[in-house]
Design goal:
Number of helices of chain A: 12
Distance between the termini of chain B: 20 Å
Distance between the termini of chain A: 31 Å
Largest sheet of chain B: none
Radius of gyration of chain A: 20 Å
Keywords (chain A): Membrane, Transmembrane, Transmembrane helix
Low-confidence stretches of chain A: none
Helix content of chain A: over 70%
Shape of chain A: elongated
Strand content of chain B: under 5%
Keywords (chain B): Membrane, Transmembrane, Transmembrane helix
Number of helices of chain B: 13
Structural class of chain A: mainly alpha
Oligomer: heterodimer
Helix content of chain B: over 70%
Low-confidence stretches of chain B: none
Chain lengths: ~260, ~260
């Protein structure tokens, strides 16, 4: 092991000790509560409202409707708890005039950003995994709601969304190292999150926009995670595994950019 | 205080995040007619049943309020108001302000009202642009009804801004405060129209301020003072109470 990587791992361990834990733990509960809420309340909706979601998102049965709402319950808390932590990596430190002090440590800037970002992203992934597991358990318990989505397929869908959230947050660090106002960063991140949700809204209101574009349809809209649930059983965990090293690369790239910039 | 409020409002308008939010609103106004050019039959039928109105304008208003402006009400107020007072504390400015003849409570009120004013400016600008852009592009668009309905919704957005500021100072940390405000507003927005989907729950959902902001959907064809004024007054009262609560809570912030 090289000296540089040893220093990085030591620094990572140090940052890990100080990363806020309360937020992610609360958001795990929020994710689980979202799932419980969906499974208790959605079945009480009139058939017309359920049919609206079923037909609009091309779902086969109530299991699909519940799983789709659960996926939102995974993606929203996971992304936003990670975003809150991610703002603290560089943006808040810069605004509070602590960044120069932090960078005075004997650690390379790329390592510094990666070491501060990785614990946040790891906790983000943990929130997604817990919420996804709650979704799978809820579907297993309510087996009578339908067979179009299996608990393992739903778990895979949740893990893929978790992977997406982790990679998106790591990529946003690259933008954050050049932004001075944390709330501008928050706004940019909200825009990015909306960007990932827009195709699903288009599917509901303009399904004809996807005519002749099956690749776009089957890769960009959230319900496609349920249409291909058999594939997601292995693709979901695999994408989360791949997301973590990719996030390291992105966080280090953000750090390298910070090192080259004069945006302190 | 009025002078400080005016200067803070101007400073808020000049901030980059305000301009980015404005650009997002303009984008939404320009894109929505494309999204609603040809809604599928199941969407038209469901919305016609929920609001007892088969007019294409009702479909448009549902999408405009639910898909666009309620999402704006979740995110933009948090971005504009979550840093109130806490940003000054974290950057060391609050200690300087403490030496001025202005209590922390009054300062919170000034900053929150200023954030509300910036939000209202963005909101009104977006609705006026929409009222000019939508005729001829949205089937059955009625500018008068649209502006009347959105004037009610504006009160809900103002409440959301005051709510975000108060929640943030109550939590005491900017990141966590923004997250909690985002989650709570997200919950309110998610449940805002549930009473229309499930009529048995309608009265219960009226405790939700975001539901009050969307009450114009109940009778778009006959919007008048009797439909709009009661929820407007309720939302104005809730906003005032929320700001007053925040001005008390902010006293615990350590300078």
């Amino acid at each position: 092991m090289s000296t540089a990587s040893l220093e990085f791992s030591q620094h990572l361990r140090r940052e890990w000790r100080f990363v806020p834990r309360r937020g992610p733990l609360v958001m795990m509960s929020v994710g689980v509560l979202c799932v419980v809420f969906n499974h208790l309340v959605l079945p009480l909706f009139p058939e017309r409202a359920l049919a609206f979601m079923r037909v609009g998102f091309r779902l086969e049965d109530m299991a699909g409707v519940l799983a789709l709402n659960d996926l939102m319950g995974v993606y929203f808390p996971t992304f936003f708890v990670g975003l809150t932590g991610s703002l603290g990596v560089v943006l808040l430190a810069r605004e509070e005039h602590r960044l120069e002090l932090l960078l005075a440590k004997p650690v390379r800037t790329a390592d510094f950003v990666a070491a501060r970002a990785l614990p946040v992203l790891a906790w983000t992934a943990a929130v997604g995994v817990v919420s996804s597991t709650a979704m799978a358990i809820a579907l297993a318990v309510q087996a009578e709601v339908g067979t179009s989505v299996t608990p393992l397929g739903a778990l895979g869908g949740g893990l893929l969304l978790t992977a997406l959230a982790v990679v998106l947050l790591a990529a946003l660090q690259i933008a954050f190292v050049r932004i001075r106002d944390p709330f501008t960063g928050l706004l940019v991140a909200c825009g990015a999150w909306f960007g990932t949700m827009m195709p699903t809204a288009v599917l509901l209101y303009r399904p004809d926009a996807f005519a002749g574009h099956p690749v776009v349809l089957h890769n960009l809209v959230m319900p496609s995670l349920l249409w291909h649930e058999a594939t997601l059983r292995w693709l979901g965990p695999l994408s989360l595994l791949l997301a973590l090293p990719l996030s390291v690369v992105l966080a280090r790239a953000a750090g390298a950019w910070l090192e080259r910039s004069d945006a302190l | 205080m009025t002078r400080l409020l005016w200067l803070d409002y101007l400073a808020g308008l000049r901030e980059r995040k305000t301009w980015i939010a404005a650009a997002m609103l303009v984008y939404a106004v320009l894109v929505i007619p494309l999204l609603l050019a040809d809604p599928p039959p199941h969407v038209r039928e469901a919305i016609a049943a929920w609001f007892a109105d088969a007019d294409p304008f009702a479909v448009f208003m549902f999408v405009w309020i639910d898909l666009v402006m309620n999402k704006v009400a979740t995110f933009v107020p948090v971005i504009l108001a979550s840093g109130v007072v806490l940003r000054e504390r974290d950057t060391g400015v609050l200690a300087v302000l403490a030496a001025k003849p202005l209590t922390l409570s009054r300062y919170f009120v000034v900053r929150t009202v200023s954030a509300c004013a910036v939000m209202l400016t963005l909101y009104v600008g977006a609705q006026l642009l929409a009222a000019l852009w939508f005729p001829g592009r949205v089937a059955g668009f009625r500018p008068g009804t649209f502006l009347a309905a959105m004037s009610l919704h504006a009160f809900a957005v103002l409440f959301a801004t005051a709510f975000a500021a108060t929640v943030s100072v109550a939590v005491g940390r900017r990141g966590a405060g923004a997250l909690v405000a985002l989650m709570l507003l997200g919950l309110m927005v998610g449940l805002a129209l549930v009473g229309f989907y499930q009529p048995e729950w309608y009265e219960m959902t009226l405790v939700n301020p975001l539901t009050l902001g969307a009450l114009s959907m109940r009778d778009l064809a006959h919007l008048g003072a009797s439909t709009l004024l009661p929820p407007m007054l309720a939302l104005a009262g809730l906003t005032a109470v929320t700001i007053a609560l925040g001005s008390r809570v902010v006293r615990k912030v350590e300078v």
